[in-house]
Q: What sequence folds into this?
């Protein structure tokens, strides 16, 4: 029996100790009519060897295509040491660190993570992570409503240049608590959110403004102007950022005159494999004055009975298991294993290594855009690339082009027709440091073939 | 055994009320309440000038194991808050009826029917 | 009194510094850095970072040694028996990890087109099917990323259902007083009001109280079965009838699914919506606090409201169905598809168990719990519900010992650490004073359970002979009991280089 160690002798002796004749007797409190007879819909079990054969076959079906997609999940090189350590049983199969004496490894790792993410984002304090970037945005909006005492409207302004999934998740999560989300248009020529797009709210009560940097199109926003605009109107600023880009870009703690108030984003670029969409981790940092409004777990350093330093979960009174109906959130997990991977990645790369990665991303994406826009029928929609993603406009519908590329094992980018039909035949392409010059050339050659083989629209 | 000074009035939700000169009242939480909470780590107080209705949640006292709401025992307006509690929330544990006062308020003329005498409060919260 | 043997897995007592303490200017894992470039010259000057963030400057060996040593300070399933009630700390098979980390799965972008996704999506589709079968529900959504997230989806679906029927007055969620804290927190997050009902002395929901609590404002009830008290809700059919007749729906908190896997199905008990904790019942790793996966299942009337995306079939292949395919969906709750790697691990686990293996989970989890409960009671511990069968977990109450000897559940929990056992869940459910909630799971051997009983027997003796010893336990862990009052009063939440 897989994973069950009992021998028949164990079973009979244990039943004797309990005082029942068989295991079925232990279920005698359950009404007979409810008892399951057989699970026909579940196939018979496989032994490990059969199982691995099955999984390898499934994996082979998907192969390893060349990836130029981004849109919130990025293919970065992950050092071998990261997962060698993260998959150690002591990290992998440990529980939430409620018994602090038995969890100092996890707790100290979280403390170090909090320190690194706060430093990277230019803020004063961090939590132990949230589910992902999208839910972190939702939690930030709820937190802004709690923290912004002067605003009553619960109105959150969200530029359309913010990731469409993040906007959808914020709405799905927070609308039930009375938050009002309002779209802010972006400028069609630059792909940026300009102050001109905010005129409708010049004199309104706004609780928070969300600013994503780089934005979904890979463009860089004028974060100082946007931040100051919000603060001048008593609104809080929620910054949504890419952690690798923070190695070369000004952190939100330094935006505008006063800095952003709440910073969130997805930590996937830091040591988390693409893995079909997850697990990733969401990060959240803020100012010290808002620490009690921050959801999720927080670790603090303290001392033990002998005066030795140690780490423990703190500020738990805000959390679900104590506050119950009045909690800051119902969240009772952090993405522990992924946060650990992120901590290891940042420790191995350091500030200078991260800076090299960011610069390599810039270089490779500039190279990619140059190669692709050299082809007839391909232009960069918004001008110069921002960080590592760029919107290209094709002279024909994107979907068939992508299908043709996919048939050659190349994932050419993300078709924007669904979420941004106003941009025409728009394609979001991405190149990280994990794409080589040869990869870029392969893509350009394949695209050239596809475009000359098919007709223009 | 919890202390319940005889010269104060009490709410069922464990707040105490002390009459001060000029119609002002002082509000805090009882010895029973501070003992149940344990060592206090943080206090969130209302803004001076805020208008409260009777029974409205107006402050939060937080310990390691619980964060409890404090309810306004009377309707009225907050006049001053005890700023000492920012740096020293433990004052509530040490002196719940003296240095650990939370805030003062000017009650509305109406007053309250539901405040308990020390003896009645002892019946629900005494030793 | 003889000192207990030190835990042989504990490393020499030595405080591991912070990773920042290894930093030296100019040091770093240079072998991991890409070549330098000046590509950042294209960035506008006012947007550029002026000062490097404070991150470690350590060698690769420093980092590897530091985090390896930190890991050795942890208890984990791989190293210790971990009888945490309601957490289902069962063995995480290594094969699940090996399969999920096959390079094709690991490197796959979430937005990969269907032609590059049939392998992964077929696993997801089959996972949906298997979960449907074992829960007796009609539809499954895999995207919620934790139990609490699944709860949110469930309550949001209940609200959406009532609104779609034009019944806007239903905003009350009934919760038994013993419920897990996420239940009322979730209800509030969904804009609902919580109404608690009492549980009787035997641990079942008080039907009289329930009948008084339901009415035209009832959106639904959140229950787990077996309950948080570790016992089966015997009158579940009557509870279901009562709530349904009042127009409300039944929500099942799947935290305790391990007790009944393969024996009873929530769909058959009348539940309209359930969430599962794949990181409990289906053995995906706890990871030191996540990632989890809180897949949800629904009855037919809630199918239109499932959160997106869900796996479906179009043009003879598997695809993700989204908002366009499910226009009444409560919406998207995750950036991409949820915790895909966790879902893959759960799929592998279920394929290895197979249909016979599912039955055995509930059987052996229940056998182990009843055995442990019987032995501990024989030793002199007091069960909270001695007349009831244990499900996959049971509660001991220490209140008598607390009164007689001044020893608390917390003291016992801390002393168990010295014996090399992780403590059970303490002080949950709040309803039972001084309680220990103990869940051995089916993957533990009888010898492990007996060793645990040995430690508990020793602790009982210590509580009589030297209660003071217990009050200051643990003694053999990397740290003694921590000052959590100081942790909350003097917040030290990030490393500061100039701090003492």
A:
């Amino acid at each position: 029996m897989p994973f069950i160690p009992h021998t028949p002798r164990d079973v009979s002796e244990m039943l004797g100790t309990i005082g029942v004749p068989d295991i079925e007797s232990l279920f005698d409190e359950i009404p007979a009519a409810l008892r399951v007879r057989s699970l026909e819909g579940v196939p018979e079990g496989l032994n490990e060897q059969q199982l691995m054969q099955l999984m390898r076959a499934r994996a082979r079906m998907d192969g390893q295509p060349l990836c130029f997609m981004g849109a919130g999940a990025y293919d970065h090189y992950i050092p071998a040491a990261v997962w060698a350590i993260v998959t150690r049983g002591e990290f992998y199969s440990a529980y939430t660190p409620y018994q602090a004496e038995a969890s100092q490894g996890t707790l100290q790792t979280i403390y170090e993570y909090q320190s690194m993410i706060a430093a990277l984002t230019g803020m004063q304090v961090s939590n132990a992570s949230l589910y992902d970037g999208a839910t972190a945005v939702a939690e930030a909006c709820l937190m802004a409503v709690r923290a912004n005492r002067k605003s009553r409207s619960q109105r959150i302004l969200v530029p359309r240049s913010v990731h469409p999934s993040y906007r959808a998740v914020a709405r799905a999560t927070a609308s039930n608590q009375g938050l009002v989300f309002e779209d802010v248009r972006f400028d069609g020529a630059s792909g940026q959110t300009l102050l001109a797009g905010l005129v409708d709210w010049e004199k309104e009560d706004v609780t928070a403004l969300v600013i994503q940097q780089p934005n979904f199109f890979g463009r860089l926003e004028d974060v100082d102007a946007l931040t100051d605009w919000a603060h001048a109107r008593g609104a809080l600023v929620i910054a949504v950022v890419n952690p690798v880009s923070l190695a070369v870009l000004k952190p939100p703690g330094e935006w505008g005159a006063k800095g952003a108030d709440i910073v969130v984003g997805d930590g996937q670029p830091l040591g988390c494999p693409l893995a079909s969409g997850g697990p990733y981790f969401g990060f959240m940092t803020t100012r010290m004055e808002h620490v009690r409004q921050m959801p999720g777990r927080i670790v603090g350093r303290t001392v033990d009975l002998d005066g030795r330093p140690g780490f423990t979960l703190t500020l738990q009174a805000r959390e679900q298991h104590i506050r119950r109906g009045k909690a800051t959130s119902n969240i009772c997990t952090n993405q522990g294993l992924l946060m650990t991977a992120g901590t290891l990645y940042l420790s191995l790369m350091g500030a200078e290594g991260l800076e090299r990665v960011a610069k390599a991303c810039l270089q490779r994406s500039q190279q990619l855009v140059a190669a692709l826009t050299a082809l007839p029928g391909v232009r960069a929609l918004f001008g110069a690339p921002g960080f590592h993603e760029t919107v290209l406009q094709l002279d024909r519908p994107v979907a068939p082009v992508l299908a043709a590329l996919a048939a050659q094992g190349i994932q050419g980018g993300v078709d924007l027709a669904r979420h941004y039909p106003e941009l025409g035949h728009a394609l979001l392409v991405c190149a990280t440091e994990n794409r080589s010059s040869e990869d870029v050339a392969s893509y350009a050659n394949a695209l050239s073939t596809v475009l000359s083989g098919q007709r223009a629209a | 055994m919890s202390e319940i000074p005889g010269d104060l009035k009490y709410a069922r939700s464990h707040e105490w009320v002390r009459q001060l000169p000029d119609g002002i009242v002082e509000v805090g939480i009882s010895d029973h309440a501070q003992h149940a909470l344990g060592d206090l780590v943080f206090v969130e107080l209302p803004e001076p000038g805020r208008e409260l209705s009777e029974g409205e949640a107006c402050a939060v006292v937080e310990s390691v194991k619980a964060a409890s709401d404090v309810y306004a025992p009377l309707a009225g307006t907050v006049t001053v808050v005890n700023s000492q509690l920012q740096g020293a929330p433990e004052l509530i544990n040490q002196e719940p009826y003296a240095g650990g006062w939370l805030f003062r308020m000017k009650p509305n003329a109406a007053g309250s029917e539901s405040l308990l005498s020390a003896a009645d409060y002892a019946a629900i919260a005494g030793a | 009194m003889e000192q207990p043997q030190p835990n042989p897995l504990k490393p020499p007592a030595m405080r591991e510094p912070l990773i920042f303490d290894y930093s030296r200017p100019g040091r770093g894992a240079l072998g991991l850095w890409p070549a330098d470039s000046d590509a950042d010259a294209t960035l506008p000057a006012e947007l550029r970072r002026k000062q490097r963030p404070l991150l470690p400057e350590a060698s690769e060996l420093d980092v590897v040694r530091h985090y390896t040593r930190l890991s050795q300070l942890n208890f984990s399933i791989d190293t210790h028996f971990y009888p945490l009630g309601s957490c289902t700390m069962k063995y995480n098979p290594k094969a699940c990890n090996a399969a999920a980390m096959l390079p094709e799965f690991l490197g796959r972008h979430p937005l990969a087109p269907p032609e590059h996704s049939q392998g992964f999506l077929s696993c997801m589709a089959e996972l949906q099917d298997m979960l449907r079968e074992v829960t007796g529900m009609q539809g499954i959504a895999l995207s919620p990323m934790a139990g609490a997230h699944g709860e949110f989806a469930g309550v949001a679906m209940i609200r959406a259902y009532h609104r779609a029927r034009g019944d806007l007055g239903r905003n009350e969620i009934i919760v038994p007083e013993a419920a897990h804290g996420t239940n009322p927190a979730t209800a509030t997050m969904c804009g609902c009001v919580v109404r608690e009902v009492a549980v009787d002395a035997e641990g079942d929901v008080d039907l009289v109280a329930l009948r008084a609590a339901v009415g035209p404002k009832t959106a639904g009830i959140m229950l787990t079965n077996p309950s948080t008290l570790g016992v089966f809700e015997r009158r579940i059919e009557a509870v279901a009838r009562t709530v349904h007749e009042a127009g409300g729906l039944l929500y099942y908190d799947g935290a305790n699914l391990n007790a009944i896997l393969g024996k009873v199905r929530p769909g058959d008990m009348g539940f309209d919506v359930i969430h599962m904790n794949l990181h409990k019942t289906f053995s995906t790793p706890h990871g030191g606090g996540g990632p989890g996966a809180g897949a949800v299942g629904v009855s037919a009337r809630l199918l239109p409201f499932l959160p997106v995306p869900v796996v479906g079939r179009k043009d003879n292949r598997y695809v993700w169905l989204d908002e366009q395919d499910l226009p009444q969906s409560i919406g998207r709750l995750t950036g991409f598809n949820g915790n895909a790697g966790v879902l893959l691990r759960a799929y592998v686990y279920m394929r290895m168990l197979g249909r016979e293996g599912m039955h055995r989970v509930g059987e052996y989890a229940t056998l182990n719990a009843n055995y442990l409960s019987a032995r501990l009671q024989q030793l002199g511990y007091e069960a909270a519900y001695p007349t009831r069968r244990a499900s996959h977990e049971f509660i001991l109450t220490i209140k008598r010992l607390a009164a007689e000897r001044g020893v608390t559940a917390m003291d016992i929990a801390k002393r168990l650490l010295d014996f090399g056992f992780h403590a059970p869940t303490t002080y949950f459910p709040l309803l039972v004073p001084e309680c220990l909630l103990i869940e051995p799971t089916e993957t533990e051997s009888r010898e492990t359970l007996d060793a645990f009983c040995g430690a508990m027997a020793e602790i009982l003796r210590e509580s009589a002979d030297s209660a003071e010893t217990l009050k200051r336990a643990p003694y053999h862990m990397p740290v003694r009991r921590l000052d959590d009052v100081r942790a909350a009063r003097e917040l030290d939440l990030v490393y500061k280089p100039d701090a003492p």
The first helix of chain A runs from residue 8 to 18.
